[in-house]
Amino acid sequence: MTRPLRYDEIDAALTIINQAALAYKGVIPPDCWQEPYMPEAELRAEIADGVDFWGCEAEARLVAVMGRQDLQDVTLIRHAYVDPGVQRRGLGAGLLAHLLNAIPGPVLVGTWAAAWWAIRFYQKHGFQLVSPDEKDRLLRTYWTISPRQVETSVVLADPKWFAADLAR
Known about the structure:
The protein has helices at about 10-20, 40-50, 90-100, 115-125, 130-140, 145-150, 160-165, and strands at about 1-5, 50-60, 60-70, 75-80, 105-110, 130, 155. With about 170 residues, the chain is of the alpha+beta class.
């Protein structure tokens, strides 16, 4: 079942995020890794900044989280994580489909360039990598991340982004 994340589920969401993010350890640049990967204060700041988190519940417990952030002319998919114990069962795909179904305009996703599994997941769901120059511009425009993270990340866009880009 896909539903908005409840305030009392912050701890459960952090557990999922930080367990799933262990896949990045040793893959992303060491200077970009921290433990925990997402501290509670960072998650709460993301919520305060307008990231609307959704959860997927299975077997009466939260097993996946994904955020969406509606900005002026685009929606960002943010912080998509599935409990490692239940990955590869379509839960992330279902959560993404649910969020995308409710987004009328273009959608962007940022992830680590070395996270090939995340890139492949989004490509499987219709997203395409933008050019390196466009990636830098988009990350600086829509995300608040360090220059090092900009350097080591990619951006994927949905077909609506590319259609809107052609119309400009």
